[in-house]
Amino acid sequence: MKKGVLTIVLLTVLMSCLAFAADKVATPVASFPGGMYDSSPFFYGMLMVSCDTPGATIYYTVDGSDPLTSSTRGTVSSFMGMSVIFGMSGTATVKMVAVKDGYQPSDVATYQYLIRVSAPTVSPSAGE
What we know:
With about 130 residues, the protein is an alpha+beta fold. It has one domain (about 25-115): Immunoglobulins (Immunoglobulin-like). Helices cover about 15% and strands about 30% of the residues. It contains one helix and nine strands, in the order H-E-E-E-E-E-E-E-E-E. It has one helix at about 5-20, and strands at about 30, 35, 45-50, 55-60, 75, 75-80, 80-85, 90-100, 110-115. It starts with a helix and ends in a 13-residue tail after the last strand.
């Protein structure tokens, strides 16, 4: 094989490898950063999420298990044009992964939420 043809073949193989490496789904993102909150940041128990890869499906868990393989995983729902996880309240470790046919799965995104609960107040106070 001639040197010029070999160079073209090697460049074609290299470009194919680079294109394959780029075919990975974007990592999903939650609308609120993980952290400690004094009150729930979840709008009516919903956590909005997004993925920059059109047509990707987002799987999630709220118990810290692997969203690719867990039997407790859920699929992000669509609500009024938004992608949401329903039923969020209190403390949770949310893990999300996005998948799409023909692509490598995204990296797993992990968000830990700790909601501090205030001590209850009694009303009326004692003696009233």
